[in-house]
Amino acid sequence: MRFDVKRLYPILLTVITLSTGIVVLASFFFNSPVLQAFRGVLVEWTVIVAAFAILLGVLNVLRVHATRIRKGQGAFYSLIALLGFLAVFVPGILTAPQSAGDIAELLGPNGIIVKFMYQYVQRPLQATLFSLMAFFVATAAWRAFRIRSAASLVMFIAAICVLLGSIYLDVGSGVWNQVVELKNWVLTVPTTAGARGILLGIVLGTVVTGIRFLLGIEHPYSE
Amino acid sequence: MIPTFFDPLYALISIAIILLSALLLWWFMARARTQHRRTWRPIPAFDALKGLVGRMAEDGRRVHIALGTGGVGDAQLPILLSGLTVLRYLARQGAPLGVVPLVTVADPTTMLLAQDVVYDAYRRKGVHKYYQPTDVHMIAPDATAYAVGVQGEVNQEAVAANVMLGHFEREYLLLGEAGAQRGLVQLAGSDTVDAQPFMLATAHNVLIGEEAFAAGAYLTGEPRYTASLRVQDVLRVLIVLVILLGVLWKTLLG
What we know:
In chain A, helix 1 packs across helix 2 (33-71) and helix 7 (173-188) runs parallel beside helix 8. Chain A is built from eight helices and no strands. Chain A is extended and about 80 Å long. Chain A has 223 residues and is mainly α. Chain B has two domains: 44-219, Rossmann fold (3-Layer(aba) Sandwich), CATH 3.40.50; 222-254. Chain B is built from ten helices and six strands, in the order αααβαβαβαβαβαβαα. In chain B, strands 3-2-1-4-5-6 form a six-stranded parallel sheet, sandwiched between helices. In chain B, helix 4 runs parallel beside helix 5 (108-124) and helix 6 packs parallel to helix 7. At the A-B interface, helix 1, helix 2, helix 5 and helix 8 of A face helix 1, helix 4, helix 5, strand 3 and helix 6 of B.
């Protein structure tokens, strides 16, 4: 009988996945220094592999934007993206000896240039984008609260209760306290119950997918 | 008291659940291979996916798939696998028609998997010479930057449908709303509760809770996926019974 390496390959991968998965899983349940150490080594390997993946990811970003510049499709934004990348990457990867004085402080991953770009470019931009979400929420709510079905009606009534209960109106404390109580009830009883139901489904899906993985029934790479 | 790691009782219960799930999975898989295919309750989101590629091919436009911010080494891998299943389905349908989805990812390890899925779809149809690695775009590892980058992709004229299945949190709204404002056909699913209300507000078809993990069963019908749904059903019933027993115990015995 002819020995076929291609048939051995998936079996080997399954054996490695299964044995590694079981050992890592066991390290969560048993307080064994050997298992903990083994898990630590595997995590280190994962970090190394992920580092190479980041390199490939960077090359993908460069390739996509270079292609767009060449084809003239959104070339301006792609150019900005590439310049932004170079402005952080080049000073971040370069280092200078301490004897170089101010230049040494400017360069490196913890240098002034990289810190400046993070503190005064990236963080303000992120904050700005997140503040835009308020307007996005308004337009999304407008769309969601159009009453087209019984579910939309329930959503609308719940939203009105929560909105009214969250603001202050001078209509007499007795009535208002009831509105606030209604808001609290909406948030703590039906909302929490629904959220926990969704969460339970997500957890079960996660557990069963993990077991498929552990048993070698599923893998993310193609056969 | 909340049990901690290495608590013998906690470990025992966890191991029992894992062993029970594994045995049930094997049993249901064996049954699924011998029995007729079971009919599942309809999920509109998966019905919408069927025939989507054909319609895109007629229009000369593309489907965009956002796989979220999860990566291979993260706890979000299961939902990422679900997203990859949808990508595999759409890529295999689209490869012979030359309509392969445009994929955006935040994590480089996800990028590699997505490229592998798309390449495999081309290879199976014998058209791998047309494969473009840039069909899968890595945007940025940061969640906000990713969401904004995806907005740019969604706003392209060539994109007519937007599938978002993966790990999304509140930043989902930035990309979901972009597609909603353009009137795209949108399908969304996530493994977080935070993103669910935003999805309901912006997408036509939303996968709620465990539905996000049912892509394989609904799109491929393979025994491993259908068996997984049966296992989830059994575990859900058991958990509900335990909760009810706990409530009765506390109510009657204090």
